Amino acid sequence: AKRLKDTLYEKIMDWRPRTERLMKEYGNVVVDQVTIGQILGGMRGIKSLVSDISYLDPQEGIRYRGYTLPEVFEKLPKAKGGNMPLVEGLFYLLLTGDMPTEEQAAEVADEFNKRRILPRFIYELIDAMPCCSHPMTIFSTAILTLHRESFFTKKYHAGISKLDYWDPTYEDSLNLLAKLPEIATYTYAKLYRDGKRIQSNPNLDFGGNFAHMMGIGKPYDDVSRMHFIVHADHEAGNVSAHTGHLVASSLSDVYLSISAMVNGLAGPLHGLANQEVLRWLQDLMDKMNGEVPTEDELKQFVWNTLNSGQVIPGFGHAVLRKTDPRYMLQREFSLKNMPEDPLFKVVDMLYNVVPPILLEQGKAKNPWPNVDAQSGVIQWHYGIKEYDFYTVLFGIGRSIGICANIIWDRALGYPLERPKSLTTAILEDFAAGK
Ligand code: FAM
């Protein structure tokens, strides 16, 4: 069978003329216009990026290479002894656009296995981090420190052709992704388990190995696979995806770029939101002395949160206008595997209680739950009670999508990103019609 890298090479050769033609023949076609509101408002909604890895449909939710998430979960090859798809298969899909066979997913698993051993200095680095360092700081620092291993950077200095940049970027990406489960689980062990490390098992897949190194039994392997897959990508404009792309556009290698994207993910408006959900739920459970509240009590708690000027964490979305399919997939899993969990019961009640209240309040453009309303509760159920770690899990998943994006950025020769900035006085001149 054809190797992944050869398949990728063919796809790249087929794709390049499309981008070249758009650039040469249609470079002046207008796609969007920009308002002062958008310039001052976080560039919200400006159509100014391109990615073929994923696309966020306001109604369907995220599509990976054109497939909706339910399709991705149905069609990707499943892990042996599990019900969830292989993360390796997802990476194949994101890279090539083709739904992989079992054999093709196994090839990625093989590649990851060959590359998963961490250099000793990474353990030493994690050991040397000052106490109370946030797990995201450690995760990002470890990735950054691996920069010295970069094949792309070596090749670049040796004088490689621009057309070949994607090749060492691909090698760096596989080398890095293969190591992330071990970096994350060792960070967890160091921070919360007295440094007791569980050796990885070369016979397990990416998600299975992660669960094994966390020391958590079934079905946590499926939880890990599901978590990494639903978090892998959310088109190119969100903070983590955009940061990865921006840093890589200066030809910083994958290690520098992924470390930067992890730092963007670490913010409370992005990856940290799932821990906010759990904090809010814990507060509710404390007020209820650990009992599952009645529907009326829950409604009151929701209104109290809103009336005190806070948002309901885990609800709403900047782009989506329906219940997040990432929420639904995790809900299905929870209904099947942990229906009696008291926190899940509350989450499930909130699913019915919150949207009508947000609609009645009339502010949120999307009153439906998002991915974060569920993910932390599942982690909590399987024993990961250190909220700070949740964003690291998100970071592993997101790295898979961003690496695929960066490989294609180099393959299609996307240039250095350099939008123009203005001053407030210039905007005032525009406002006055000058
Ligand atoms: N609870 C209460 N009010 C909400 C709300 C919620 N869950 N979601 C939106 N609103 C308010 C919002 O604060 C804004 O009020 P003001 O006009 O007073 O500023 C108004 O509704 C319009 O906001 P929007 O256009 O509907 O949402 P945005 O695009 O500005 O923001 C979110 C999107 C996700 C940041 C927002 O819905 C929110 O704060 N949700 C709660 C926090 C959360 O769940 N974040 C996770 C997002 C997740 F998808 C991720 O990126 N990891």
TrEMBL record:
Keywords: Transferase. Gene3D superfamilies: Citrate Synthase, domain 1, Cytochrome P450-Terp, domain 2. Pathway: Carbohydrate metabolism; tricarboxylic acid cycle; isocitrate from oxaloacetate: step 1/2. SUPFAM superfamilies: Citrate synthase. The keyword Transferase applies. InterPro entries: Citrate_synth-like_lrg_a-sub (IPR016142), Citrate_synth-like_sm_a-sub (IPR016143), Citrate_synthase (IPR002020), Citrate_synthase_AS (IPR019810), Citrate_synthase_sf (IPR036969). The keyword Transferase applies. Its EC number is 2.3.3.16. GO terms for biological process: carbohydrate metabolic process; tricarboxylic acid cycle. One of its GO terms (molecular function) is citrate synthase activity. Belongs to the citrate synthase family. NCBIfam families: PRK09569.1. This is citrate synthase (unknown stereospecificity). It comes from Lentimicrobium saccharophilum.
